[in-house]
Interphotoreceptor retinoid-binding protein
Amino acid sequence: MEETIDAASTNTEILSIPDPATLASVLTEGVKNTIGDSRVKVTYEPEYVPAVPPAMPDIPLEQLAGMIKATVKVEVLDGNIAYLKIQHIIGEEMAQKVGPLLLEYIWDKVLPTSAMILDFRSAVSGELSGIPYIVSYYTDSEPLIHIDSVYDRPSDITTELWSMPTLLGKRYGTSKPLIILTSKNTLGVAEDVAYCLKNLRRATIVGENTAGGTVKIDKIKVGDTDFYVSVPVAKSINPITGKSWEIDGVAPDVEVPEEDALETAIVIIELRAELPKLVQAAAALV
């Protein structure tokens, strides 16, 4: 990246671009072409203020749960199929605080269903601690499973993520069908959850190849300017595949346009429900 920026600083054609936003776009393309990482971006932000991780809001639990429920759509479809559309994956701290209310308003409604569809097509944000929390609801309590490792470059520390032995409420279990819907916009933590459950052979991914983001991005100021470079500073490495979903994204098991993913998932679940009957009928004929 340093070499690319040095080359750009002596390129009179680039330096003659008067509009800072356009210049940032040109620099972004140059960096992407050089290092082959689509997640790296150069932006011009004269009023940028570094984000500070927000403290846990000191508001009534009912109001806090209502805010979270606004990012989750829950429905029981025909055929006793649970449908959960999630836009943001909350972290363990938040889940522990509002957990009882979420169990009552969301989880207890879908727990008795015979199959579940997790819709991550619009999921673009989430907390790292939410990965083992959500994955654990679809695994057994024992034995514990190593589901992911995240290497953080600034601290040079690798954190192992394991399934959790205890959870709020009951687990959905390992036997009922689970399908995750994805799109080209599915990003970050949601990609990690999908990749973990796919490689644990617990979920079938239906939809489009995901965005290929990262679990953590830092924004670095370029010298004494209003230009910033967004750079991924952590990497997820799956213990089963030894690989990462980052950059390339999560490939679906059944690839269909995102607008057809839900209908396709329902058909798959219905076919799986009929399969034992078909096998039994075939055996009877034999």
About this structure: Residues 1-36 form one domain.
